[in-house]
Amino acid sequence: MRVFILITLSLYLLTGCVPKIEKTDTLTNSDVNNELKKDLGNFKSSNLSLEKNWWTKFNDEQLNRLLDEALNNTPSLNILKIRYEKAKSQLNITKALKEPTVSIGGNVSRQRYSENYIFPAPLGGNYYNLYEQALGLDYEFDFWDKNSSLIRAALNEAMAQKVYIRVKELAISTTIVKLYDTLNYQKSKLNKFEELKKDIIEKHHILAKLHELGLANKIEINTSATSLDRVNNEIFDTKIEIENLKNSLATIAGVMPSRIENLKKSNSFDNYKVFVPENIHLDILSHRPEIAMQKYLLLSKEDYIQNAKAQFYPNISLSGLLGFTSFSWASLFEKSSSVPYIGTAISLPLFDGHKREENLNVKVDDYNIQVQQYNQSIIEAVNEVVTSLKKLELNQSKLKIQKSVLENNKKNVEIQKRIYELGLKNKVSYIDSKIVLINDEIIKLALKNSEVNAHIDLIKAFGGGYENKGETFDNN
């Protein structure tokens, strides 16, 4: 018996050889940090760090309430939360593979026993009731990490689903803040166009009176009328853009249109100072939720490879049965009616048409695909950080120049006003200087909006305050 068991185990172990596999390498933190140092080494950073609720630094209660509603009630985010709960349930199902299966069953039957078979009289040739009751146990040993690898894979998939919620939250919060600021910018621009319209109308009336006096030609009046038509078109375009922004904001926030209609114009972004987090080039990967998600998915693919490898080794299982069989119900649970059983089984396919090899190849291919997705996420993250910082720097330079332009134009307006008040010129030159100033103020508004948007892009590029320091799995 011992010789038989030894020979059987030897054959199983000899046949359980795992084929050689080739796995793709991932980009490392050092690769990323070295690349970022080349591009970002000269950027100055503030002694600040991003927090999860980074938008609260704008000190806008209206915005805070809107984001609170969006992050708690928007259907697109709730779908991901439900999927996370589903992933946790799937994990619990998978965990059952490591536990013994205990079952209980019973059976009652009545039959006639053959006279011409193994049953002696009086059993043979008569009808009898047969009572059976059994308690069974089955357990599969996990020597080769077959079941444990599936549990780890399910855990990592659940963690990826959890981090994906963070990815979606970051996308929603950054998009809402950008839309909110752009909506306020468009409202401010609309006010400026209305102000511009008043000046153009006043100029047009003055030119019309001067024309009557022979002091202005028809070309000047037509040019003024054209300017008025253009500013009216700008007003209509701006109103359309405001409605589009409201629609986008309501859709992404997951609220009804009336909720956005009730928003008041905010000036919270006017004096907001942009900052760059300290040590911007260090450990970018741990602050990007989508990279953490890809990492968890990569770990799950690696676990599936381990599971595929384990299938090249024999399955060893234990089964037991504590049963009772009796023709009489009264004596069913007596010791004499017991039929206990215990056994061990070892199984391994010797020839399966290369099914296990191809299964392993599929899992390796899945892993390598996930590596490429992981690497692509890292490349996109690095490019987003570098591009966002450079755009922010360029925009700030443009804004600085525009501020200088505005200062000079304000001085020109004061000069033209003084000349008009002294009666040295009519009011047209003074109004023209105001029109130039308003147009430059509109340009400044656009640049300020671009600066805030660039900063929000930078916040997103840095992960919006996310830190992957070992996510916890809340499975109650």
UniProtKB/TrEMBL annotation:
<dbReference type="Pfam" id="PF02321">
    <property type="entry name" value="OEP"/>
</dbReference>
<dbReference type="GO" id="GO:0005886">
    <property type="term" value="C:plasma membrane"/>
</dbReference>
<keyword id="KW-0732">Signal</keyword>
<dbReference type="GO" id="GO:0015562">
    <property type="term" value="F:efflux transmembrane transporter activity"/>
</dbReference>
<keyword id="KW-1134">Transmembrane beta strand</keyword>
<keyword id="KW-0564">Palmitate</keyword>
<comment type="similarity">
    <text>Belongs to the outer membrane factor (OMF) (TC 1.B.17) family.</text>
</comment>
<protein>
    <recommendedName>
        <fullName>RND transporter</fullName>
    </recommendedName>
</protein>
<dbReference type="InterPro" id="IPR003423">
    <property type="entry name" value="OMP_efflux"/>
</dbReference>
<keyword id="KW-0175">Coiled coil</keyword>
<keyword id="KW-0449">Lipoprotein</keyword>
<feature type="coiled-coil region">
    <location>
        <begin position="357"/>
        <end position="416"/>
    </location>
</feature>
<keyword id="KW-0812">Transmembrane</keyword>
<dbReference type="InterPro" id="IPR010131">
    <property type="entry name" value="MdtP/NodT-like"/>
</dbReference>
<keyword id="KW-0472">Membrane</keyword>
